[in-house]
Amino acid sequence: MHARDTLQLQFRLAPAQLSALKHLGLHTIADLLRHAPARYDRGGGEATIKGLVPGASVTLYGTIHKLDTRKSWTRKIPVGEATLKDASGSVKIMWFHQPYLVKKFSEGMFVKAVGTVGGKDGKVYLANPHVEPADPTMTIAPLFKNEDGETAPQLFAVYPETRGITSLWFRHHIERVFAAGMHKELADPVPADVRSRFNLPDLATALVWLHTPQKESQAQVARKRFAFEEMLAVQTARAQDRAENDTLAAFPVRDAHAAADQFLDTLPFKPTGAQKRAIADILKDFGKPHPMARLLEGDVGSGKTAVAAATAYAIVTSRPPNRESGTLQVAYMAPTEILAQQHFESFVQFYKHLPINIALMTGSGCKKFPSKVSKDKPTTISRAQLLKWVKSGEIAMVVGTHALIQKSVEFQHLAYAIVDEQHRFGTKQRRALAKKSAIAPHFLSMTATPIPRTLALTLYGDLDVSILDEKPVGRAKLTTEVICPKQRERAYEAMRAAIANGRQGYVICPRIDEPDPQKMNALMAKSAKAEAARLAKEVFPEFEIGLLHGDMKPGDKDAIMQEFADGRIQILVATSVVEVGVNVPNATVMLIEGAERFGLAQLHQLRGRIQRSSHPPHCFLLAETRGEVSLKRLSTLAESDDGFALAEADLAARGAGDLYGRAQWGISDLGMEALKNAKLIRAARDEAEVLVAHDPMLVKHPALAERTARTRGELHSE
Known about the structure:
By secondary structure, the protein is an alpha/beta fold. Helix 14 (453-459) packs parallel to helix 23 (678-694).
């Protein structure tokens, strides 16, 4: 037996079990050992069989009899059965999906059984208990002593499960792996000197403590060790990405500071101090011999586009090397066609006084500014013509969607790549844009999604970070109000009044379709489809109602958003798909149904859609439940407009896995737990930077090199 063997080779699993394990991402013995428990349950108090009641957690001692296997009558699933007897009576044991467990015991064997009592109509049983041979001379005895020397019930690992693979299955098979010593075969990715510095156990010890802890402190130390290991791998991968980036050459940018100052002088508003600092960060990076890699994080309405325009201006007014004509090129990638169109129009206004060619490239078509016929207007051009001009360098700036990363798009001197809302694209697409030129472009990622500091260090650890934490002057103050279902009409009246004054509004729903009536806990959640129909018929028949949700085709979504932007739709009923990528300054009222179902940061993003102008915005948070915790969360949002503070509060309350999606980043549940621990993240980052600085390819640390290579592959696949 070897730790790298497949699970099928070791355990001869049924196809359904293999499929279930594959669903959990478990293929080898090593994968199984790293499948961390979700929590630990304590064995219940020692008891006798007589008097058992359903729901009780108990530890029983007795002899086992009537061992058998069968299939259940109703669901036809395999079941192992036995009867446990003590001096007071007997109780049936049933192991669902695990009939093989009966082979561990023989008729009349004395055992200890730990589990939860099930049953109804006066009949009780133990479902999937943990059963093991015991000393028949024992009376009821303590299982172990805790750190204070007091008796304590045993800890049992409870795992993330799937159909046919239970926690008992995991415990049984991991015990077999431990018995064979396979956990000792795995090389430890965490270097010995690093383990010593942070007082971490070695891999073999940590695996035993993770799965079969004798006390809570062992489980906590093991989980900390594996969280540190994962963060070390992530930070090492990011450090390698950064080191690789710093070996590349970038285009020199001439007189960047003077050009940016010249641009800022043309703006009708005074930039904030935060905008000036971010611009200075970027211009300083332009002066380095290697390409910039920077994340610009700014709350809704903080002025990221102006920062992008000022720094892009320095690029499009700079000559390519050894050239007296032409300019360096900029690519700006937006997540939706309508947002790309809006940014194109913004850059036209920013640069209309310059002899600069700007283009728009989306799946729907292409445009160029200025037109040869009308110098103050853009004109529609063919895709083939645009590609030709981009390749020749005649187009200085291209704004577009993911169409920009297609192989047919070639630049002559791409010096600056800007990606808006990077998390909507993923690392793979960002890297594809950054490789559009023989000389690597400077790269700026922009996001309006408030990201907690620990998460930014982890997910964007290869990027420097600039933060816009000030709002431009002139934006109207947002009013956020928490209401109950009986007060819904108040929100409707506010929407009517706003529309009467020429404004528009949103109604946000938690789901797309009506819930299954069989699922009673879902009945209250309003669906966008049903609500749009109801509002159009019963509440706002005099207004044009639009519907937008994630299941619509991209072209249909863009068409609806364009109608809303043009004012042909007065009320847009939508799901959270409008969280980013929608910029309609005329919309000033929002009603969010089932607001407690959204995270604080997400709610903050949603209400940001009505903070795009000088008109006073009003957001109604309608809570379907009156739970104290839910109302407290929503009140926090009503009292604060600091997106970063709200993101930190959400991280503490809900965890990064719920907020940002574990699957999106390839980070385990343990890794996501670690994102609440800023000290651990910083320590992993510091160690990774030292390791990569002294040994870039990790030649001296092959186990860490393998772990990091796997992590890099997951991060780059996005």
